[in-house]
Write the structure tokens for this entry.
Amino acid sequence: MDSLISRVIDQVGQVLLGKEHQVRLSLACLFAQGHLLIEDLPGMGKTTLAQCLAKVLGLKFERVQFTSDLLPADILGVAIFEREQGVFKFHPGPVFTQLLLADEINRSTPKTQSALLEAMEEGQVTIEGKTRPLPRPFFVIATQNPLSQSGTFPLPESQLDRFLMRISLGYPSAASERLLFQGADPRATLKALKPLVTPEQLTAIQAQVSAVKASDALLNYLQRLVEFTRTDEAFSYGLSPRGALALLRAAKAWALLHRRDFVLPEDLQAVLGPVVGHRVRGHLAKGPEMLIEHLRSRVAVVA
């Protein structure tokens, strides 16, 4: 599995230059059976990352461009009456895929955003009283523009909580951008990518994450982190039990990515920002980055 993951990272890195850490976080999110939110300016490679992962992981891919006039049925599907047969026939929407790119999700209304809640949490959708399972694996990558930009609707806390991680790609380094200027069109490189993993292999990797061990000492550290968010005055509110479980699951996936079957405190710290940053709020004008650094520095690894 180690060589397989290295090849995946290398393939994606041929298109998305200088973003190995973000690619590793994305893979950890997928291996942990979570969903990924990428928040950044337009043109930073958010959509490209999703397309690359779908290609190299051999996943069926669908993209939905979220706009203010998008309706839930445009995502989930709709039952249409067929006059010749005299019955309603369900026409599945793009959510019935393995990797769904919800592009610029915060440009749609909250009603449309909420159409994904059941799909992301339970891997199924209920339409007109009938529950339909989604394909496995099922991975949502949503992109959103900064809320300071016009025409955006903030994601409610219940929607944010469905994303295991929130990351940002950021500007490329000068060296990576120079290579981009000198190299071939990334879109051509993207088209040339070949699947390296089958869905069955990916499902097996996801099963291995659950088997990664967490010692009592590690769980003690996790509980201290969680309790600190609930009691320290810098936080408006703390991490929920679901958020705490998400942090542990992401840390297990990060450990597996680094060839270990046990979790270290460094694994929790590595995923702390992406997992916790969008789940807590702070006082004293502390932004997510400052809150996470405050949490990391104030909670001792060993009690």
In short: Residues 219 and 248 are 9 Å apart (CA to CA). The chain has a mean pLDDT of 89. The first helix runs from residue 2 to 13. The chain has two domains: 2-197, 212-298.
